[in-house]
């Protein structure tokens, strides 16, 4: 009897240990991997799932069918630098440490991320994630001579691994010759960006992303920020991507081939081919997740950093929206957003939840099961991703931008959109009835304008480099020197 009792105790103990181990293992792997894919200057209507009829994007269209598309998602800004800073820090452009592209500052000196800034990568790393950025960084414009750039490099901002382009100007060329791996620069000796010859660096980014996924396991969650440079100017792409568009009889658009942007001679075919090449390579990445057995526990997000710059109505890159890159109309800041996460996100669903780049920090923080999340301007959109109607909503969303047209500001508050231009009357639009922002209602609703102006004033903090005054063009000053 004693032996039997001891045996039962032993069996019970083993059962408890195995159960606890299984529970611990389940908890260990319950944090999803996160892949955030960012296109560069892709318009709201540039992919099939958002209405595109000319450019072929079968991978992204299928991803939308397998997941959710958000129709009211906003970039952090209307140009690259401040948009990416908003994504990484969780602050809109009224609070962000970087509120403009390089040199568009009061001093004419670029502003980079600092050690005091907390990034998504730092937060996720603190919560057990491996972290990597592959592609365009653009948050480190300081000089390299004295190592001034190091504090703002990805490896000093929470990323375990970096492969790609450090600065904005480097990313203007798809055959650029100088890249970084972590903090070390290296040369692609056969690359000639002046004549678009050598290795197409987008392909290198894809290969590195595939290699990164191949190295991952189910034991440790990972965050991959895949920051593509397509379809940002210069417009150029290898010929194999153009073949499917060459015999469609499209009108040709001649491009400048000898300016700062070393474009291919014809634009329309090139633009479509660039986007299709990116779409193809995203398909390769999704297939790699499947092969590695990681797809089920991976949230994949695709979006763009701001509106388009290239299109002149041939592709209808805006869809129904007004404006483009460098505008604070919807076409400059509303971007496509697709998320796929098997068994967590309902397939073929659409969300009208109003969200923005600064929501990514709290969203990823919740997914990482952090006990404490950094203070941001964002709201976790995990419930919206999963189709939960109890998702918390923003009272308002704010943007500011300042280049050659002078300071611009915009506020989204429910159905209302306020646009403020330098030394011009305020504009007010009801986006539920006028998504194209064609009917200015400011004079009809002065109380709404007054209320929104009050929120605008409260939505920004002082930054010595980003005040709301008209700036001289720093690039023209440089050319004169």
From TrEMBL:
Domain of life the protein comes from:
Bacteria
Q: Which positions fall inside the Sulfatase N-terminal domain?
A: 32-367
Task: Read off the SUPFAM superfamilies from this record.
Answer: Alkaline phosphatase-like
- Give the signal peptide as a residue range, or say none if absent: 1-24
Keywords in alphabetical order, please.
Hydrolase, Signal
The name this protein goes by in its record: Arylsulfatase A
> What GO molecular-function term can you cite, just one?
arylsulfatase activity
Protein family membership: Belongs to the sulfatase family.
Q: Does the keyword Signal apply?
A: yes
Asked if Hydrolase is a keyword of the record, the answer is yes
